[in-house]
Amino acid sequence: MWRVHHAIVESIRGNAARMNILHRKLLLDVMQATLMAVGILTFVLVLGNVFTRMFDLLVNNDVPISFVVEFVVMLIPFSLVFTLPWGLLTAVILVFGRMSADSELVAVRAGGISLATFCAPVLLLAVACSMFCMVINFYLAPEAQLRIKSMVYRLASESPTSLFEDDSVIDQFPGKRIYVGTKTGNIVENMHVWDLDRKDRPVRTFRAAKAEILADEKNNAIVLKLYDARMENRSPEDPENLQKIQTGRRFEELPLTIPLNRLFDSVQKKKGLGALNIEDLFNEVSAPSSKREGYNFTPMLTEIQKRVASSLSCLTFVLVGIPLAIRSHRRETSVGVVMSFGVVFAYYFLTIVAETFKARPAALPELIIWLPNILFQVIGLVTLIKVCRQ
Fold first, then answer.
1. Is 341 found in the same domain as 240?
2. Mind listing the pLDDT tens digit for each residue in 98-132?
3. DSSP type of residue 187
4. What would the pLDDT profile of 206-215 be if each residue is shown by its tens digit?
5. Which of 266, 283, 312 is the last residue of a domain?
6. Do 149 and 297 reside in the same domain of the chain?
7. Which of 34, 155, 266, 290 to pair with 359, CA 20 to 30 A apart?
8. Is 105 left (phi over 0), alpha (psi -120 to 50) or beta?
């Protein structure tokens, strides 16, 4: 009897040892593939954002290298919100697809290990990734978004000429529109400056054949020194009526001061929900102003639910990816990438559709935003259970 008991114990120990080895090998393969996929996807998204938002500044060679580096670093949290779930999904499809094609999963089952037990570490990894995504969504991404918005202010303070590009209109400064013809260093040929009213209508225009851009660090301002300038005034009551334009004085030299404090204040006012961390969002909902009659706090509730739901996309994608990879029996990388792209596209398409109801409180958008996760998780769980029972 003792020998039988000892043999059973040794068999259990042997199975446990084999299971630990398989789990470590599976986790290592999935983590390596995830890191590679996330790295490639993040690089592509960051590079695309850099060229989209900073191409003109980079061409003009006026942006300090420290500004570019900080901009790239601040883009990484935004990218990880999308690339971490997508990279994990791609890794799961590639690893399980290869194992299914090579009949390794058949060997695992033949060794007495169920598919559900075998997949458990990957599901735990997905939960850990979801927790990490929550940290990004709750704190890191909002802080990065706020830093990116304030970078215009800091760039204007440290290198004001970087904001002025050839043949372009600058509208970052509140109450001003500035057209730049040709810029060489801090010298501009053909500059137009419009003073705007509260409705962003031009009420005064300055035209200069030549201008000089100077930084006034003492007063935290930018000085536009206009040469051979002409001033035009418009009717305050009807500024869009060109027939009421009055030609004003001419100036051989006219300094125009643009305070940067107003630029900083405008950045703070345009903070938006995306730049609020999770604590700020809860404070907005529970603030006394939110209890006023007619106050719509649905967008804030929807934003909170969206951040939680998008963080759980890691777990959602793994639940869908495992049975999809096993049933496809494909080991080709290109096929895995295409399948992952299809799942991601369908998921975020439903998320975008759900977000369209954000402005309709009666439609309960804070609940609709969970629809993609619920739908995909149900499909993934049902399919995974069927695969495990086969």
1. no
2. 888 888 888 888 777 888 888 999 999 999 999 99
3. E
4. 899 899 988 8
5. 266
6. yes
7. 266
8. alpha
pLDDT, tens only, 135-190: 999 999 988 888 887 776 676 667 777 777 778 888 877 888 888 888 887 888 99
Whether residues 174 and 229 fall in one domain: yes
Domain count across the chain: 2
Rounded to an integer, what distance in angstroms lies between the CA atom of residue 318 and that of residue 244? Answer: 66
Q: What are phi and psi of 225, to 5 degrees?
A: -95, 105
Tell me, yes or no, whether 280 lies in a domain: no
pLDDT band at 70 (very low <50, low <70, confident <90, very high): confident
Which helix (H) or strand (E) element contains residue 96? helix 65-101
- DSSP 3-state assignment of 182? strand
- The residue with tokens 């009807």 is 238
Domain assignment of residue 212, given as a range: 163-266
Can you tell me whether residue 373 is helix, strand or coil? helix
Phi, psi (degrees; rounded to nearest 5) at 253: -150, 125
Strand partners, 210: 189, 227
- Any idea how long the chain is? 390
